[in-house]
Amino acid sequence: MSVAFYAPLKPASHPTPSGDRALARALIQALEVGGYEVTVASDLRLYDGAGDTAAQDALMQKATAEIARITALPAAKGWRAWLTYHNYYKAPDLIGPAVARALGIPYLQVESTRARKRLDGPWARFAAAAEAASDAAHTIFYVTQRDAETLRRDAPDGQVLCHLPPFLSRSDLPHTSTLAGSMLSVAMIRHGDKLASYQLIAQTLAALPASLDWHLEIAGDGAARSKVASLMAPFGARVSFLGALTSDALAEHYSKASLLLWPGVNEAFGLTYLEAQAAGIPVIAQDRPGVCDVVFCPLIKQDLGPSGMAAQVVHLSNPETARTTGAQARDRIAKHHLLGAASATLSRTIEAL
Asked: Where exactly are the structural domains of the chain?
C-alpha cells in the first residue's frame, strides 16, 4: 500500500535538527516497517511564527499551487491514504484535506493540536485552517494526553482518535549506559522555554550540596548560547558545552551518562527523554504535561522547584538507585516506544480503513 506523507511545520528533509524533524522521519520509518511505500507529497513549509497576515496570504497561494501540482501527479492515483504530521495554528495543513478529497482517499493526522482561542488575533486565518483540517481527518493519532483533551472536546461526529505514544526511530535498544560519566542535558539552546529550562538547571546546580562531586555536559547549540554560558559561569569547569552533536556522537555520551537533567518547561514531550531512558539513564524532570507521558522516573513537582530537582540529583547519586531507576525506564521504552510498537499501531488503524 502506498501512503502520502506531509509535515507542514518542518519537512523530514529540513537541515536543522529538532524533535519535529526527528519524529517526522520516525513516522516514515514506522510506516515502512509496516510494509507501506511512503511518498513525501510536498516539502512546502507552511509555518508562520510571527502572526504575519501577509506571510499567511503568500503561503496560502503556494499551498493552492501545490494542491494542483500534487493531484496531477500520476503516482498520486496509487496512494491509498494521506498522513499529515503536526497540524496546528502556526503551521496548518492547507494541502492534505483538498488532495485527499480530490483523490477520494482517507485523510489522517498525527500530533494535531486544537487551539480555538487562536481564532481571534493575528493567526486567526491559519487557526481556522488548522481547525478545518482537523475536522476533515477521519483519524487523528494523538501522542500526549494533553493533546487528547482538546481533540476529544472538539472532535466532529464519527472522528476516530487513536493513541500513538512518542517513539524512537529504532527497533532495538542501545547498549545500557555505564552510568559512570557526567550528568547530561540535551536540547537546543534557544530563548523562550528552552532558556527557562536552562535557568532552572543553573538554580538546581547552585542548590546541590558542596560535598557532592558532580559534572554536567550540555549537548546542543543555538542563539541563546552566550546567555546560557553566563548562567553556567559560576560553576567553572564543572559545566562543559559539547555543542551540537551528530546522533552517533550523542549516542556515545548516552552510553556513559549518569543521568539526564532537563526540567522540560513547556516541552511537547521531548525525544531526548526517550533516548536517555532507552540507554537506562535515569531522568530528572519536572512534572509537566507532555513530559509525564514519556518520563518513567519519579517526576519533580513544579512547586518544589530547583530544590526538589537538587534533592533528586543527590538521591540518584547512589549507583544502585540509579541503575534500578534506569532499568525500569528502559523496560518501558522497549515495550511501548520503539518502531515496532508504533508501526503496529499505525498499520492496525490504517488497515481498518
From this structure: 2-169+338-351, 183-336
